[in-house]
Specification:
Rossmann fold; 9 strands; globular; 12 helices; single chain; binds iron/sulfur cluster; two-stranded antiparallel ribbon
Length: about 325
């Protein structure tokens, strides 16, 4: 007699404005992906499996146990798909920095649609477009009408678009956190709604260089990572290299630090930090020129500050759409 078929929880994966790294992170579960695949029924994963939107539309509301959505919301298509997945899912997890905070695609909020189209379709050195032809949402061809999604002026996080239950931080989230999240969901052992599924400590608390971090840091000069040979027994900030570790949540395994690079904040802020960009900016500014033998003149201070190339891009590298700034003012 054949065993009765046990229905497994249905799981969906979807990507919006992202680089594909979050999809790689799922594959990086290595042999654990077989455990996950055995425990759940994957009903949607466009990057890996051939499911269609109509398959999801045909499902009952809330019949998907959890949808993992990575990437920020940039187009009308992404907006439509996350709304559909929200309706069909019990839980939605914003997966990775772009879904959580806006991420690298969110830096486009320093520009707008017109600026981005001009750069991508006209000014880029590899583009020849003398007639200034830009993508249109609707184009008539002899066979009928071709459509493209609307490209918005502003990149949004997933929770600025739909209700989100949990956040898995990181660019990309590391496999151990993904596995913990999936196991927690399957076993019904989850923290309160809205939780970020990573430790609520700062990266400095777990950083292998923390033992070299002086009690009081005085920054006399600012250097970019490629301008100095980093001392592996020195905290980056103490070397004058900007590190966002003090305002960033830990849980990544200190990947950048171990690879000789300062933290750029992809895990987002800890719970008590309201806005990580402004938090790091103000704390770095307060460390410049303190406790030097001779007080730095205004001119010397300005010279040091001028060495922070692209402060917006640096301090808000992963968090611009979710920050207090959110975007550049559109005229
Ligand atoms: S500032 Fe950066 S390098 Fe220094 S302890 Fe914190 S995370 Fe580590
Ligand atoms: S060190 Fe910072 S930027 Fe690098 S993976 Fe960890 S949280 Fe992200």
């Amino acid at each position: 007699m054949s065993k009765p078929k046990v229905s497994k929880p249905k799981v969906a994966f979807y990507w919006c404005a992202s680089c594909g790294g979050c999809e790689e992170a799922v594959v990086d579960l290595a042999e654990d992906i077989l455990t996950v695949a055995d425990a759940v029924d994957i009903v949607f994963w466009p990057v890996a499996l051939d499911f269609k939107k109509k398959d999801i539309e045909a499902m009952q509301d809330a019949s998907i146990a959890v949808s993992f959505i990575n990437g920020a919301i940039r187009t009308s298509e992404q907006e439509e798909m996350v709304n559909l997945l929200r309706k069909k899912s019990g839980l939605v997890v914003a997966f990775g920095s772009c879904a959580h905070l806006g991420g690298i695609p969110g830096l486009a909020n320093f520009s707008d649609k017109a600026g981005i189209f001009e750069r991508a379709y006209k000014l880029a050195p590899t583009v020849t477009n003398p007639d200034g032809i830009y993508p249109q949402t609707e184009t008539q061809v002899p066979e009928g009408s071709l459509t493209l999604p609307v490209f918005y002026d502003t990149v949004k996080t997933v929770d600025q678009t739909i209700d989100v239950d949990y956040y898995l931080p990181g660019c990309a989230p590391p496999p151990d956190l993904i596995l913990n999240a999936v196991t927690g969901i399957l076993e019904g052992k989850l923290p309160g709604k809205g939780a970020v599924l990573a430790p609520d400590k700062s990266l400095c608390d777990t950083c292998p260089l923390a033992e070299y971090k002086p009690e009081k840091i005085s920054i006399k000069d600012i250097k970019r990572p490629h301008e100095v040979v980093h001392d592996p027994e020195q905290c980056f900030l103490a070397e004058g290299i900007i590190c966002l570790g003090p305002a960033t949540r830990s849980g990544c395994g200190e990947r950048c630090i171990k690879a000789g690079m300062p933290c750029r904040g992809c895990f987002g802020p800890t719970r008590d930090v309201k806005d990580m960009g402004t938090k790091v900016l103000t704390s770095i500014a307060s460390l410049i020129g303190i406790e030097t033998e001779e007080e730095m003149s205004e001119e010397e201070l300005q010279k040091v500050l001028a060495k922070i190339v692209d402060p917006g891009g640096l301090f808000f590298m992963y968090s611009l759409p979710s920050s207090v700034l959110r975007r550049r003012r559109i005229k």
